[in-house]
Amino acid sequence: MRSVSIIGVGQSPVGELWDRSAREIAYTAVSAAMSDAGIETADALFVGNMLSGSLLDQEHLATLVAGYCGLYGIEAAKVEAACASGAAALRFGVMAVASGFHDVVIVLGLEKMTDTVGKDTTAGLATASDAEYEALHGVSFVGLNALVMQRYMHEYDVPIDAFAGFSINAHRNGANNPYAMFQSPISLKSYVNAPVIATPINMMDSSPVCDGAAAVVLVPTERVRQFTTGHHWGSVRVLAGASANDTLAVHDRRDPLFLQAAQISAEKAYAQAGIRPQDVDFFELHDAFTIMSALSLEATGFAKRGEGWRMAHPEAIGINGELPISTMGGLKSRGHPVGATGVYQIVEAVLQLSERAGANQVRNARLGMTQNIGGSGATIITHILAA
Amino acid sequence: MRSVSIIGVGQSPVGELWDRSAREIAYTAVSAAMSDAGIETADALFVGNMLSGSLLDQEHLATLVAGYCGLYGIEAAKVEAACASGAAALRFGVMAVASGFHDVVIVLGLEKMTDTVGKDTTAGLATASDAEYEALHGVSFVGLNALVMQRYMHEYDVPIDAFAGFSINAHRNGANNPYAMFQSPISLKSYVNAPVIATPINMMDSSPVCDGAAAVVLVPTERVRQFTTGHHWGSVRVLAGASANDTLAVHDRRDPLFLQAAQISAEKAYAQAGIRPQDVDFFELHDAFTIMSALSLEATGFAKRGEGWRMAHPEAIGINGELPISTMGGLKSRGHPVGATGVYQIVEAVLQLSERAGANQVRNARLGMTQNIGGSGATIITHILAA
Predict the structure, then answer these.
(1) pLDDT in tens, A1-36
(2) Which of A20, A161, A256, B33 could be bridged to A24 by S-S, CB 3.0 to 4.6 A?
């Protein structure tokens, strides 16, 4: 298997981009990544996206985007795994290069969730859950996460404001990210006073509905030197990647408070990379809701069962903390354009590992981990990148 | 790169399966393929599907199906490339095995297009075209193909009934396929008298809206012997596979009467396999409309420009003809459950190459080619399989 490296990254701003259609947002990210990589064409374009069919009446998305970016005669396909679509597309990009089928692959994460005429974004997000056994009964996606959070608080006797530190950290970091949807810090007071969406999840526990696209360029590590001549910034290696599934419906899960798929995918990734959790310098986790941050930290070896919430303070997860998380704002502050999120995480990890993260630079970052979650923990994909 | 082989195939009947939900149809195909392969688990499940988001309000489909089939802790993702979704999923399955990431991969093609409450299947199919520049103006997918066919007939002075032989051949073969949606032969008279859908496309030029699922099991060729002991039927090698894109909108194409992407993907596949078109023993082409059969034959080296329609007779394309096509009924008679079609083609090619095609067996079939088309020629994927 050939080793795979990233030689270019690009992203669009995240937000309610009412003046731009999906293809234009995609072009912003793809052209930035191609320019960052110094390439003018590619062998393949794989697009992580969840909702273009439901919200935009547009399938065949990868071929549409490829053409809009001027790429013809190449391989193009869309990859969907709910909110883990971005990392799922990266997995295929890595396989395409690792196998030797392609030498230059662009992986794009793309989502347009706002300004969708006559469509219901909440109903769209519910398609990540089981349509016949969950969504049919009217439970929304935030509702499912609220049930999990409620149970967690009950089981481990955790007060609601114990989660505030995750959101405060995310916004503190997002304030320095020019691509973030929210670039203002928040306080404990604003967390506590935030309106409740689905008890106990409040507005500050929850990532926003938004639009965005992020892209990376992959090449075989053995060919990196050909591409990174002159003023090129260098490259970052994809050291490991693994995906695992669990039951789609939360009610089918043996233990709804443990992310089995996170544990499996993280352990596979650690084994591939030959590292232990404590070797990771920062962790871009899937903080779609604060409860998911706690559960992810527990399942991947950074906290004991029921104690992930105890890490919600700067000494643990801040930029200069023990394990920096959501270093560019995470899903909460940078935003969560669902199918794009997994690729934003990769882009941000690459910025950290190439010392291009600006004010949020994690010092001496050599190993970065990302984790992208689809549904309420049903598809979990972990990647480990190395400077 | 590791060579990849198919050791199991399975399919559900194709039709209006009103009594079965998508997951049940999927289970039929997956369990049949696993049983045919003699395996009890897998490392990954990739699902080619186009319309589950639009028509079933169900994304996250691969994880749903994996769980319903009892497969947990594995990699699962859905792949979408309009009507080429099935072959696109196979591409990723092959890459996963070829790269060494996985040893046993199930590739499923799945579509549920009928009995979709409150949804519009015609609008769903139009999502394969450009939503903002084609579908928005009200042109349906069959309408786009009708424009191409009209132009072809004008440009090359071809009478409408010249295409009848494609449909007659498909139905003749489908009559012997127990999984086919239509198992009755048709006559020239029934073709000529068929109601017109979009001039000049009539009901007999067009493949049906239907449900179905097909699956294959992939392993590295070097490990085939471990799996094919005892009464196992053997294996078929995936000799080559390539995908190419063209403009999504037909009106953007330099020449709407030439399938550029078919030519590119076929030539790449021939080169990978080290063969010429005349070495192919049969060809499962994408006869969603008769015009696509003609264009596909022209672009892949079997007929000259403007002369593909001349092959629409038994001596050319029948089971005992020069180049048998649609040997188990093709999209026209077996049916066209869009995201599943590409995998049905592979399953049928494997049946031919393992001498399990029954009454439709192509004699001495050693090399089979399949071609799956997304949109009106915007994504075209060619595979070559070897006995």
Answers:
(1) 999 999 999 999 999 999 999 999 999 999 999 999
(2) A20
CB contact under 8 A, A67 and B247: yes
Question: Nearest CB to A248: which of B2, B64, B375?
Answer: B64
DSSP state of B360: G
Q: Which of B385, B353, B383, B372 is nearest to B80 (CA)?
A: B372
pLDDT tens column, B314-348? 999 999 999 999 999 999 999 999 999 999 999 99
| B311 to B9, B52, B237, B322, B371: CA distances (angstroms) | 30, 36, 28, 10, 17
- Give domain status of residue A336, yes or no: yes
Domain holding A325, by residue range, is: 137-207+239-386
The size of chain A, in residues, is 387
Q: With CB atoms and an 8 Å threshold, state whether A131 touches B1.
A: no
Out of A102, A171, A336, A383, pick the active-site residue.
A336
Cβ neighbours of residue A127 closer than 8 Å, sequence gap 6 or more: A50, A51, A54, A82, A135, B53, B57, B58, B59, B60
Query: Parallel, antiparallel, or unpaired for β B212-220 and B105-111?
Result: antiparallel
Q: Does residue A342 carry a pLDDT above 90? A: yes
Return all residues near A138 (Cβ < 8 A) that are at least 6 apart.
Answer: none
Above pLDDT 90, what percent of chain B?
98
Are both A159 and A48 inside the same structural domain? no
Whether B69 is catalytic is: no
Question: Is B379 an 8 Å CB contact of chain A?
Answer: yes
Contact criterion met (CB below 8 Å) for B299 and B275: no
Over the stretch B261-315, which tens digit does the pLDDT of each residue have?
999 999 999 999 999 999 999 999 999 999 999 999 999 999 999 999 999 999 9
Mean pLDDT in chain A? Answer: 97
Interchain CB contact of A207 with B (< 8 Å): no
Number of domains in chain B: 2
In this structure, what token pair is assigned to residue B51?
């319309």
Separation of alpha carbons B294 and B304, rounded Å: 10
Q: How far is B151 from chain A (nearest CA, A)?
A: 24
Is A161 an interface residue toward B (CB < 8 Å)? no
Q: What is the pTM of this model?
A: 0.98
Select the residue of B57, B124, B248 nearest A131 (Cβ to Cβ): B57
Amino acid letter for position B323: L
Q: Answer yes or no: is A271 within a domain.
A: yes
B chain contacts of residue A117, beta-carbon cutoff 8 Å: none
A325/A311 Cα distance (integer angstroms): 10
CATH number assigned to the domain comprising residue A351 = 3.40.47.10
Dihedral sign of CA atoms A196, A202, A206, A212 in order: positive
* Mean pLDDT to the nearest integer, A182-208: 97
Active-site residue, selected from the candidate residues B171, B286, B336, B383: B336
Rounded to 10 deg, the angle between the A338-353 and A85-99 helix axes is 60
> Is residue B200 domain-shared with residue B216, that is, in the same domain?
no
Q: Which of B69, B83, B286, B383 is catalytic?
A: B83
In chain A, the residue whose alpha carbon lies closest to the alpha carbon of B1 is: A99
Residue A117 has a pLDDT of 84
Instruction: Give the burial class of A184: count Cβ atoms within 10 A of its Cβ; 0-12 exposed, 13-18 middle, 19 or more buried.
Output: exposed
Same structural domain, B107 and B171: no
Chain B residues within an 8 Å CB radius of A101: 1, 95, 98
Residues 6+ apart with CB under 8 A from A228: A7, A38, A234, A235
> Tens digits of per-residue pLDDT, A285-324?
999 999 999 999 999 999 999 999 999 999 999 999 999 9
Whether B83 sits among the annotated catalytic residues: the reply is yes
Q: Please enumerate in sequence order all residues whose Cβ is within 8 A of that of B251, keeping only pairs 6 or more positions apart, or say none.
A: B133, B134
Average pLDDT over residues B127-141: 94
How many Å apart are CA B296 and CA B9, to the nearest integer?
A: 26
